[in-house]
Fold this protein.
Amino acid sequence: MSEAVSRPNNLDAFWMPYTANRQFKQTPRMFVAAKDMYYTTDDGRQVLDGTAGLWCCNAGHARPKIVEAVQKQVAELDYAPAFQLGHPKVFELATALAELAPPTLNHVFFTNSGSESVETALKMALGYHRIKGEGSRTRLIGRERGYHGSNFGGISVGGIVSNRKMFGTLLAGVDHLPHTHDIERNAFSRGLPLHGAELADELERIVALHDASTIAAVIVEPMAGSTGVLMPPVGYLKRLRTICDKHGILLIFDEVITGFGRLGGAFSSDVFGVIPDIIITAKGLTSGVIPMGAVFVRDDIHDAFMHGPEHLIEFFHGYTYSGNPIACAAALGALETYKEEGLFERTTELADYWEDALHSLKDLPHVIDIRNYGLIGAIELEPIAGKPTQRAFNAFLKAFDKNLLIRTTSDIIALSPPLIITKQQIDELFDGLKSVLRSLD
Ligand code: PXG
Ligand code: PLP
């Protein structure tokens, strides 16, 4: 494809999400194609995908099962109304997903994104308590440095100041746990850090402040992705589970990033052994190909809604595109690809090699921490004095010039490649990153 064809003349109209728009439009970076582990840029370069797009293309790009499923579906049934009507694939997909989920979470609600899955889960939690006669349970507890998407519920329980401060009072009745990132005690941990399980006890403090009878749910990412790959310390999630159980509080895991293989199992419960009451997913569900999210819910929470006259709607919630046929086809294609190629197991098999390669960057300039689990990793850099985020963003730009796609947030480089990455490509990624880090101011 020639540059003249692939680069639009006018970049002005499109207001880009979470982007420095003016800077981008002066020096645009464009992808025009993708296959397996590589993107093609508009100037014809092959860029190694170190981030699975935005943590979503877990099966890699343009994978045949997914491409075929989508092409076939769009020609056969493009859209079916989502309310009071169905189509076969949405039931087939929900059943397949329920089989993948923990044994007690057999009901699935479809959305179109992680953000919508978050709103859905919070509404389920509030509705559930009300149905059970505990309507005073309205408080939601999130966590500092949590990311739960961009919508109002999500930014309220989320813990990212720049995502919150512009937007007024948000949801009322929200409190936050402290985050678990502690470089002083846990720097250069391999796998889960040893220190910090006691941070879960802050939930007891919040309960003591508000009383358990006012609290509906706690929502956390089992491993926080967006704010820089923050690991749960050993024992932390178990402790949260115990405290929630003690006080009748629902535990919601936001697995938009951790779901579908990133940590080496379908969900974090497969890896960390803690089962939440509600699981939020999106991204890897379709390997990023068609927007789709899914909320998995514990059977008795679902069943609590299934009362009253049968002709009445039980849960006043849904989206025009909930369970969209093409998204369902993409998800079924993705699940088939994950299964046939054993990609979740592959993550576990590759994890040691990934870990060693990542930690080989330990002694490079400015590196103050490295952390990893499954096929996810982060390199935290010392910020340039007075210019936070600049050093890591420079690394992103230099990496892009060297044909590597990485992601940065504040001064942290986050890596989360498609699960089809080979050892050779892991070497390519870290050899390139080494020279990037050596070249930074
Ligand atoms: N929850 C979590 C835990 C997420 O990571 C969302 C909700 C929202 O999903 P949607 O589909 O509405 O974007 C996310 C999304 C990054 C980055 O690099 C992370 C996300 C999205 C885009 C970029 O930090 N996470
Ligand atoms: N706004 C208006 C005016 C609508 O009619 C609808 C859906 O019918 C929505 C918003 C919500 O759109 P969606 O179902 O795609 O989330």
In short: The radius of gyration is 22 Å. The first strand starts at residue 31 and ends at 35.
